[in-house]
UniProtKB/TrEMBL annotation, chain A:
Entry keyword annotation includes Membrane: yes
Protein name (record): Uncharacterized protein
Entry's transmembrane regions: 107-131
Keywords carried by this UniProt record: Membrane, Transmembrane, Transmembrane helix
Species name: Chitinophaga pinensis
Automatic annotation (TrEMBL), chain B:
Protein name: Sigma-70 family RNA polymerase sigma factor
GO molecular function: DNA binding; sigma factor activity
Organism of this sequence: Chitinophaga pinensis
Classification via Gene3D superfamilies: 1.10.1740.10, Winged helix-like DNA-binding domain superfamily/Winged helix DNA-binding domain
Domain RNA polymerase sigma factor 70 region 4 type stretches: 111-156
Family statement drawn from the similarity comment of this UniProt entry: Belongs to the sigma-70 factor family. ECF subfamily.
Length: 155, 168
């Protein structure tokens, strides 16, 4: 492909403005590898637009700078350590601070369930043995009464 | 000579931005911020939205400065300009539905508007849909009821015109 013809085709301007298609971009990257002189052409177009854009700049609200840098500093703090996403989160405890609530480890739940079941088992045995004891006491009393009656009748 | 001086300056600026130097970040904002704001404002047409986009652009530029270095970009402004336009188009897509709407005859206040106002009606619409609306050629063809190839040919002619316009 004739380099000069390629340069004149408007492909560079299309790329610089960001409206080139994917195919055109790939073609341009290929051509840049073949003809490094294209880089200077791209640079020249970008510089020309830059010069005009700087001359025709519109100033945003003066408060914007502070807002942008607050955002940037907030994002930068703490600096990202080797792309570890976890460390970028801030953990916030949203529990009420009225002093009426406590936070405990989840193992306590298991502990409370076991304690509850054990207490029920103990209660069951307590009632069971109480009834057994009562039964045996009654039987003993009956036995005593029977012996006493037999003695009285014997005499 | 001037070209190389600018290049060296840009190289140093980029290195400092990669290092996260806050003073360089401020200098870059002061120097390029208003120019980028103007580019964004042309696309979104609303100062509040344009300020939001400019914020996002600088966050992205400072955080992803390696993107500039790594993907064969030439000048820092060229890269920032493309990032700004892309993000502005995205913002405009998110907030409006009618692609032909909002095509007001803009004043000759900047380069692209001056260029656009010089174009014949159909070319102006094609340029508007491609640059300001960021639509792919197929979508532009559908809207105008012509073939995508015709859009491509028109756009090529428009870019040749733009090249001449820049040289004037």
């Amino acid at each position: 492909m004739d380099l000069n013809h390629y340069i004149q085709s408007g492909i560079i301007e299309s790329y610089v403005l960001g409206i080139a298609t994917v195919n055109e971009m790939e073609e341009l990257q290929h051509m840049r590898r073949l003809y490094p002189a294209l880089n200077a052409e791209i640079m020249a177009v970008e510089r020309r637009i830059e010069k005009t854009a700087l001359a025709e700049a519109v100033f945003p609200s003066p408060y914007l700078k502070e807002r942008i840098f607050q955002r940037i500093n907030w994002r930068d703090d703490p600096p990202p350590p080797h792309g570890d996403d976890q460390s970028r989160y801030t953990f916030i405890n949203i529990q009420s601070r009225d002093g009426q609530h406590i936070t405990v480890h989840k193992w306590w739940r298991l502990f409370f369930i076991i304690t509850f079941i054990l207490s029920k088992v103990c209660l069951f045995f307590a009632i069971y043995y109480y009834l057994k004891y009562q039964q045996s006491q009654e039987r003993k009393a009956e036995e005593k009464l029977r012996l006493h009656t037999e003695q009285v009748v014997g005499n | 000579m001037q070209q190389s001086a600018v290049h060296i300056d840009e190289y140093i600026i980029t290195e400092r931005l990669i290092a996260g130097d806050p003073r360089t970040q401020e200098r870059v904002y002061d120097h390029y911020g208003p120019a980028l704001y103007s580019i964004i404002l042309q696309v979104v047409g609303d100062t509040r939205k344009a300020e939001d986009v400019l914020t996002k652009v600088f966050v992205r530029v400072f955080r992803n400065i390696h993107e500039y270095k790594g993907s064969g970009n030439t000048t820092l402004f060229g890269w920032m300009m493309r990032v700004a336009r892309e993000m502005a188009v995205q913002e405009a897509v998110d907030t409006e539905n009618d692609p032909l709407g909002n095509e007001v005859a803009k004043a000759d206040s900047n380069l692209l508007q001056r260029f656009s106002n010089k174009l014949p009606a159909q070319s102006r619409t094609i340029f508007h849909l491609c640059y300001y609306k960021g639509l792919p050629k197929e979508a532009v063809a559908r809207i105008l009821g012509i073939q995508p190839d015709e859009v491509m040919n028109h756009l090529r002619d428009i870019m040749v015109e733009f090249r001449k316009f820049l040289g004037e």
